[in-house]
Amino acid sequence: MMYCIVDVETTGGNPQGSKITEVAIYKFDGHAVVDELVTLINPETDIPEFITRLTGISNEMVADAPRFYEVAARIVEMTRDTIFVAHNAAFDYACFQTEFAALGYDFNLPQICSVRLARALLPGHASYSLGNLCRDLGISINGRHRAGGDAFATVSLFKLLLERNHGSISPDHPYHRFDRSLYHPNLDLSILKDIPACPGLFYCRDQDDNLLYVGHGSNIRTQVLNYLSHTKSMRAKKMLALIVHIEWERSGSALIASMMAACSIADLKPRFNHQARKPSGAFALISYTDQNGYCRLMIGKRNKKEDASVCFSSLNDAQQALWRWVDSHHLCSKMCGLEEGRGGCSLVPLGQCNGACVGSESSEHYNIRVNKLLAELDLKYIHRVIIDKGRTRDEFSLVFIGATHEIGWGYIGVDETIHRPEEFREHVQLSKFPQLVKPILKSYFESHHKPLKVLMLNQINQTDWD
Q1: For residue 315, how many C-alpha atoms fall within 13 Å in the half-sphere facing its CB?
Q2: Which of 146, 364, 451, 462 is the most interior residue, by most CB within 10 Å?
Q3: Helix, strand or coil, per DSSP, at residue 237
């Protein structure tokens, strides 16, 4: 997890009416500073005399300094994908937002205020101002009321606060204190700082190595910290008291993490995970091939022992949906069980049925449209490969979506070449629970995620892959 620890000096005490005169940013990885930016800023307005007396920054000092817009790109680059940390963070963050808004940019980062964090983790101090708190804790400030000195002191303070909270602070619950009494005495909270901030899964086990919970996310470390911070419900407290081991696994992409977690939960049945539910409903869409080779559809009662892609709570809902599909895919209402009797269906005279019911359309042509509907209902985006970042820089991750029950994921080296679609199968492991991962894939595509590349299996050539 990466933090940008910030301090600014300004021309006044109101972020909306003041301009920045100095900025300091220390990029901190939880252990050490890995990058820094400390610079005076020309505010393009006069600095009041009382501000000069407080900070020592005068109009003459900033006359040749860069203007904010000249360092804005560097600030954006440096703070991207970090957590904004400052002592009285609301002020510094608002100053940044005001300056960036004037440039037409929406500056937006998660925030942690070291004042609030210190109050939560270090109770009992008479004052939590940076100067007084650092004096109490033995932290020296080289340059009080200058951005560089105050920000660097905040780095030391934040590092101490991290250590006090077992090296971990949850971004979603930053002021939560890890109460040791809530956890199993053999759970080593110091391992939390070693969990990588990347997509993947985590596994919680008890002292007998029984699996308690499987979690996943685009940032494993954040997910674990957030999960360990949920201490309000009795169920959560019961599980936290049992956890002794936490393991994790990188997945490369958040999509693969979601699918791996769904399958692990279904296969291993962890004690505290809710099992994924199969589609519910009393009625289902059923397909079968008749003696003449036509693919027929009908509404029937759902067999709860079998997977069904489309289910309905009532017969009326099912029939209305089937009528819509008959219309949209130019199908025969009689071949779909919506009409009975001798002769053709009522849609033939209207030109809305090509006559499969009276033998005017061959089964080969008719079945193309039926299978297209079934494919769309089963999984809208079939015959594709999703290529995204791998677990390391030397590989890509693959999600393979083949036929109805061929969904899998795996990895391939960045230097490998694919010539034929079937070669992708050599690099993936097919899911044992395709019905559980289909909703995840549907949600992925409908949310307009942007992987590195999506390839159609029937259009793959070496140029596409390269």
Answers
A1: 6
A2: 146
A3: helix
Q: Which of 152, 151, 129, 145 has its CA nearest to residue 55?
A: 145
Q: What is the CATH number of the domain that holds 186?
A: 3.40.1440.10
Q: In this structure, what DSSP letter does residue 310 have?
A: S
- pLDDT tens digits along 191-240: 887 888 899 999 999 999 999 999 999 999 889 988 888 777 898 899 99
In this structure, what token pair is assigned to residue 363? 């089964």
CB 38 within 8 A of CB 4: no
Residue 171 falls inside a structural domain: no
Cite the DSSP H helix spans in 103-165: 114-121, 130-137, 147-164
Q: What is the CA radius of gyration of the chain?
A: 30
Produce one character per residue of 299-320: b if its CB has 16 or more CB atoms within 10 Å, e if not: beebeeeebbebbbeeeeebbe
Please state, in angstroms and rounded to a whole number, the distance separating the CA atoms of residues 313 and 253. 35
Same-domain pairing of 153 and 27: yes
Which is nearest to 437 in space by CA: 390, 405, 398?
405
pTM recorded for the entire structure: 0.62
Hunting for tokens 């008719």 — which residue is that?
366
Domain that holds residue 341: 284-376
Query: Whole-angstrom Cα distance, residue 263 to residue 254?
Result: 14
